[in-house]
Amino acid sequence: xxxxxxxxxxxxxxxxxxxxxxxxxxxxxxxxxxxxxxxxxxxxxxxxxxxxxxxxxxxxxxxxxxxxxxxxxxxxxxxxxxxxxxxxxxxxxxxxxxxxxxxxxxxxxxxxxx
Length: 114
Ligand code: 5GP
Ligand code: ZN
What we know:
The protein has helices spanning 5-10, 58-75; strands spanning 18-21, 25-29, 37-43, 82-85, 101-105. The protein has 114 residues and is of the alpha+beta class. The chain has a single domain (5-105), classed as HIT family, subunit A, CATH 3.30.428.10. A 5-stranded antiparallel β-sheet has the order 1-2-3-5-4, covered by helices on one side. The chain is globular. It binds guanosine-5'-monophosphate (5GP) and zinc ion. The site of zinc ion (ZN) has 6 residues, from α1. Residues 5, 14, 16, 28-32, 40, 87, 93-96 line the site of guanosine-5'-monophosphate.
């Protein structure tokens, strides 16, 4: 997607603070962090949301989940704890329509998920 902001980050056209990447995914710091540690993980290939997960192959799907753990380890929050969240669609407040996974931690998080 030419004008998708996360595709542009994945291609290196827009600067972002990358914390991890491999052949399937890219992870970078959220520009507006909601926790002391807030990383966004995206598949390199564009799909709009979790609703289109089946457009990614199994390697890409699994890489998203594995990257959560890798990022948590890199951020030093595996023991203290962290949250993994995906906003899908309007009611969830999805603002960037390229599937992404939030990893949040580094401090006590709100228990209010709604
Ligand atoms: P959503 O609300 O769609 O689940 O999350 C989108 C996230 O992307 C937001 O937390 C927002 O701060 C982050 N974001 C939006 N644009 C950019 C950007 O250009 N760079 C980075 N690093 N994060 C972004
Ligand atoms: Zn995209």
